[in-house]
Design brief:
323 residues; alpha+beta; Aminopeptidase; seven-stranded mixed β-sheet; 10 helices; elongated
């Protein structure tokens, strides 16, 4: 047993010494590899630090150039503003900022009940200060002008709520409504004849403002003999059988011009006529009616300024064909 143990111990020792030598060699290689890796990482970190320093210096340079350019641009812009204001020239940048300020003010006032009430009040006074780019491009006077225009727009929008448009058959209108329409248009005309003509129309459109009639027009269907005689008097070669519907009574109270009320009314009324050919007879000196008919693609026909028998009034016949 002792001999066996001595022999095995000797074998174990030889094997252990061989394994230990191999492990020592591997550890040495690992140590060398780690050392090399650490040296490489150190070199790379040093390169990165160097690049960071270079980048920082580059950014500082760029920022310096940007500040210089910005200062130069601001100086040029200031000179241009002074020149435009001094010579009273049209400035597109100023106009753009002016319009944007008006739009912004209208939105703010319309969205705030107290502000809107202050604007609508006869004693309402508003004030504000420009800031940001508008403060650079606009003067204090410009800012006040923008506020005045914005309050005007808000009042106009609110005022439009007082208008009411109706389009119906005269028979569906209350007698007092027809009477009010006749009274609004009568002037020097025969009230009775005008009332009968309106009652005989197949569509009448009218706009009221706070209950008062301010705009009127209508569609009539005169009998063929009436149309034939009228076309002959006008001196037109157009076939009266083709034009069965007449646009009549283009009336707008002078206080309500340039508010789009007549256009809105005629859009509604002419939609009732569809694509039927139309004719209209107006006084040659009625500038409003002539302009409106041109807007809706009516063309003059026949003799310019022909006089209807027994009236002494120069008239013009217009025709419209819808494609």
């Amino acid at each position: 047993m002792k001999i066996f143990l001595d022999t095995e111990a000797q074998v174990f020792a030889e094997r252990f010494e061989s394994a230990a030598a191999h492990i020592s060699e591997e550890l040495g290689n690992l140590e060398e590899s780690l050392s090399s890796t650490i040296r490489s990482m150190s070199d790379q970190l040093g390169w990165a630090d160097s690049n960071i320093d270079d980048t920082a210096r580059t950014m500082d340079t760029i920022l310096a150039y940007a500040k210089h350019t910005n200062d130069e641009t601001n100086d040029v812009a200031a000179r241009l503003r002074a020149l435009f204001r001094q010579d009273a020239r049209k400035d597109p940048v100023r106009d753009r900022e002016f319009d944007e300020v008006i739009k912004s003010l209208v939105e703010q006032i319309s969205g705030d009940k107290k502000l809107k009430n202050a604007v609508l009040s006869s004693n309402g006074r508003l004030s504000y200060e420009l800031n940001g780019k508008p403060a650079l491009e606009l003067t204090v006077e410009d800012g006040q002008a923008a506020l005045a225009e914005a309050t005007k727009i808000v009042r106009q929008k609110e005022d439009l709520k007082n208008y009411q448009l109706s389009c119906l058959a005269p028979g569906d209108a209350a007698p007092e409504t027809v009477a009010a329409i006749v009274a609004a248009m009568a002037k020097d005309e025969d009230v009775g004849a005008l009332g009968s003509a309106i009652a005989g129309a197949f569509r009448i459109a009218f706009t009221t403002y706070k209950g008062a009639v301010v705009a009127v027009s209508g569609l009539r269907k005169p009998r063929l003999p009436v149309r034939t005689q009228l076309f002959a008097q006008a001196g037109t070669a157009a076939d009266p059988k083709k034009y069965k519907v007449q646009l009549d009574w283009i009336y707008l109270h002078p206080d309500h011009h340039k508010k789009g009320r007549l256009t809105k009314l005629l859009d509604k009324l002419l939609a009732e006529a569809g694509k039927q050919p139309l004719f209209a007879l107006v006084r040659s000196d009625d500038e409003l009616a002539v302009a409106v008919l041109a807007q809706y693609k009516f063309s003059p026909t026949g003799t310019a300024g022909f006089v209807l028998p027994g009236t002494g009034i120069a008239m013009q016949l217009f025709l419209r064909v819808v494609a």
